[in-house]
Amino acid sequence: MKPINAARLCLHGYGSHKVSLDKAIKTMRETGADMKTKYKESSRGGLAVNVIEY
């Protein structure tokens, strides 16, 4: 549902953006680089290390 809602929000806009896609991607990359690995949802953090299959 999140991607669908995000697409709907984008389509309801007027075509002008306050933040460019390039700036958004750069910011997300920098934020990810600053985060500790244990807080990332990957095989080394998040649910992967806290939920064990039986």
From TrEMBL:
Annotated metabolic or biological route of this protein: Carbohydrate biosynthesis; gluconeogenesis
Keywords from the named record? 4Fe-4S, Gluconeogenesis, Iron, Iron-sulfur, Lyase, Metal-binding
Source organism superkingdom: Bacteria
Q: What is its EC number?
A: 4.3.1.17
The Serine dehydratase-like alpha subunit domain covers 3-48
- Per UniProt, what is one Pfam family of this protein? SDH_alpha
Q: Give the InterPro entries listed for this entry.
A: Fe-S_L-Ser, Ser_deHydtase-like_asu
Q: Which cofactor does it need?
A: [4Fe-4S] cluster
Q: Which reaction does it catalyse?
A: L-serine = pyruvate + NH4(+)
Q: What class of enzyme is it?
A: lyase
Instruction: Please report which protein family the annotation says this sequence is part of.
Output: Belongs to the iron-sulfur dependent L-serine dehydratase family.
**What is the name of this protein?**
L-serine ammonia-lyase
Identify the taxonomic lineage of the organism of origin.
Bacteria, Bacillati, Actinomycetota, Actinomycetes, Micrococcales
